């Protein structure tokens, strides 16, 4: 019969530096989440180019889309997303 002996070593005590790391990481995470929700709740209006893109995609005219400074693919994608959102 084979006997196996396992020695359990005591867990090392957490030093003050390890506690500081945990406290610092929790504080930094809380600050990041706080800033994220602050900026999320203070979202500004669309910029001019974004409004222009939405209006351009709403026309549905390839001729108008081709004359604009945006590459034609972007208004076509937004137009497709608008059509998909409006479909029942």
Q: What features would you describe in this structure?
A:
- Helices cover 66% and strands 0% of the residues.
- With 88 residues, it is an all-alpha fold.
- It has two domains: 28 residues; 39 residues, no CATH class.
- The mean pLDDT is 84.
Distance from N terminus to C terminus (CA atoms, Å) equals: 74 Å
Main sheet properties: none
Structural class: mainly alpha
Radius of gyration of CA atoms, rounded to a whole number: 29 Å
Looking at the structure, what is the overall shape?
elongated
What is the total domain count? Answer: 2
Strand coverage percent: under 5%
Helix amount, in percent? 55-70%
Q: Count all strands and give the number.
A: 0
Helix-strand string: HHHH
The count of helical stretches stands at 4
Name the average pLDDT.
84
- Return residue spans where pLDDT drops below 50 for at least 5 consecutive residues: none
């Amino acid at each position: 019969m084979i006997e196996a002996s396992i020695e359990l070593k005591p867990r090392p005590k957490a030093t003050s530096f390890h506690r500081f790391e945990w406290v610092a990481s929790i504080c930094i995470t809380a600050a990041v989440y706080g800033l994220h929700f602050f900026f999320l709740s203070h979202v500004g209006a669309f910029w001019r180019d974004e409004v222009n893109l939405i209006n351009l995609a709403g026309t549905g005219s390839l001729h108008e889309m081709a004359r604009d400074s945006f590459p034609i693919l972007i208004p076509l994608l937004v137009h497709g997303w608008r059509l998909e959102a409006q479909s029942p």
